[in-house]
Design goal:
By secondary structure, this protein is mainly alpha-helical. The protein contains six helices and two strands, in the order ααβαααβα. 77% of the residues lie in helices and 4% in strands. The N and C termini lie far apart (74 Å).
């Protein structure tokens, strides 16, 4: 019995503390206006996001072409070793094997470096777009009088009526277009 009274008392204290920490601005507001934005979708569907995706595809394609050329070179060296390995002098065979190993290592290093460089570039572009989108969300929040705007990635449930993702995409496209033409 004492534990149940004590836990009720603790619960009441918890509620009092919880309400004490709710911002006064929210408590005093006549109407709370909440917005949800899907930043991932906004980034992918914005014009700038699409341009970056296309740029990355082009870059990956160029790297893939270069890797394919290097793979062909390594295959040629291997075929040459397999075909003529028995009739080559030991010295020439050692030299060809060393060339093959060196080219194989260069290829592996190039693939690893290219993957890392693309990953870094992609991460930097994503972070830049995310920062710009957050600025847009803040501007929309202030302009349209939102009390609270959160990311849909952290929301378990929300009504679609409060989703402002399309508005954010339009504003971002408009701002990006202005910035692009002013350069």
């Amino acid at each position: 019995m004492i534990n149940s009274k004590m836990s009720k008392f603790n619960f009441l204290i918890f509620l009092l503390l919880l309400f004490a920490y709710i911002p006064a601005q929210v408590m005093a507001a006549d109407k709370v206006k909440i917005g949800i934005v899907n930043l991932d979708r906004a980034g992918r569907e914005s014009k700038r996001g699409k341009e970056i995706v296309e740029s990355m595809k082009h870059r990956v394609k160029k790297e893939q072409e270069m890797i394919t050329k290097k793979q062909s070179r390594v295959k040629e060296l291997r075929k040459e070793l397999e075909k003529q390995g028995l009739i080559m002098s030991k010295e020439l065979k050692r030299k060809k094997e060393a060339d093959f190993r060196a080219e194989s290592r260069k290829l592996q290093r190039h693939v690893k470096d290219a993957e890392e460089e693309i990953r870094i570039t992609q991460r930097e572009a994503t972070n830049k777009i995310l920062k710009e989108l957050i600025e847009i969300v803040k501007e929309i929040g202030e302009k349209d009088g939102y009390t609270y705007v959160t990311s849909s990635e952290f929301t378990v449930y929300s009504d679609e009526a409060i989703d402002i993702t399309d508005k954010v995409i339009r504003a971002y496209n408009k701002k990006y277009r202005k910035r692009k033409f002013s350069k």
